[in-house]
Amino acid sequence: KILLIDEALEQLKQADPEKAQIVVLKFFGGLTNQEVAQSLGVTERTVERQWAFAKAWMFRYIQTEL
């Protein structure tokens, strides 16, 4: 399953690099929405929206690969 997460993240990087960066910072880096927002120079609300989209996108990708 770890390989599927990595594969999904790689596909997301191709489709939307900014959303993939949010996944990396939050999921692997353990940063808060506020920390991610500051790091990327966007609002916290933007991070919340993009994180929700990225989680759903990756979940759908993994489901189709199982």
Identify the overall geometry: elongated
Helix content: over 70%
Number of helices: 4
Report the sheet-strand fraction.
Answer: under 5%
Total beta strand runs: 0
Uncertain stretches of 5 or more adjacent residues: none
| SS-based class | mainly alpha
| Average pLDDT, all residues | 96
Largest sheet: none
The value of Rg in angstroms is 12 Å
The span between the termini is 9 Å
Secondary-structure element order, as H and E?
HHHH
What would the keywords be for this entry?
mainly alpha; 4 helices; elongated; 66 residues
Structure, described:
With 66 residues, the protein is mostly helical. The protein contains 4 helices and no strands. The chain has helices at residues 2-15, 17-28, 33-40, 44-65. The longest helix has 22 residues, at 44-65. The radius of gyration is 12 Å and the shape is elongated. The chain starts with a helix and ends with a helix. The mean pLDDT is 96.
Concise summary:
The protein is mainly α.
Write the layout of secondary structure elements.
Elements: H1 2-15, H2 17-28, H3 33-40, H4 44-65
Helix pairs in contact: 1-2, 1-4, 2-4, 3-4
